[in-house]
Amino acid sequence: MGSITATRFKDSGGTIVRSQSQTFDELGRLIQIVGANSQTMALANDKVGNLTATTEPRSGVYGYAYDPLLRLIRETNEDGGQVNLTLNGRDLITTYSDRRSLQTTYVRNGFGEVIREVSRDRGTITTTVNALERLAIRTTANVTPAGTTYFAYDLSGKVLIEANGSNGGTVREYVWFDEMPLAIVANVDTTSPQLLHIHFDHLDRPIMLTNGSRANVWEAVYRPFGEVHAITGTATQNLRFPGQYFLFETGLPHKWHRTPRRLRWRLH
């Protein structure tokens, strides 16, 4: 399968509501993205294929630095602010320092899975991972909403249910077709549960939720390497790439059996 050079989304009347085109170099590396109103993002790579810089549509330049093992360790934004990472010998993030120099430390078990996160601004977040390396329990404090959430999965590892840790009641359900997410049943623990339909891109990554009236209630626009550019809407949707579940308190996704080596959002 070749590189996708253009993507267009149409509404029910056939009108194009979003379009995007991509340009690749002779090695198949993405070097330019053109969106609506000719907004252009340019990307630069080094000789071994590492992304070294991105130029945003408003000419903001972001730089990326790597260690001798080709692991991403620093991101610099257009104002000179830096995000710095420290990784251990297993390529796992142990500390994350944001642009305000606030440091987050990750405590891991013997399998390298994060079981506790300690941060000055978010307090302590505790997670329990089951024997199949799936996120089973998440407890948050000093954030809104705070509390404990339980997760249940099918045999292939897809999340089916989120349950309230205080009473065990189901609060959200997921509907799948093979490996593709089709719908979310939200507010299950209320008198007005809501069925939300999931629309996804060619990577099986959700990009839009619509309700029973076909109204858009959640929409995400992503940057070329998976970072969120913008999310709009009143609904909540935490599925990302296949196998990922977004953790709002960290701003990073939990991943099951997915360990990319050079991306900033790697946690598990």
Automatic annotation (TrEMBL):
Domain of life: Bacteria
InterPro entries linked to this entry: RHS_repeat (IPR031325), T6SS_VgrG/RHS (IPR050708), YD (IPR006530)
NCBIfam families in alphabetical order: YD_repeat_2x
Protein name, as recorded: YD repeat-containing protein
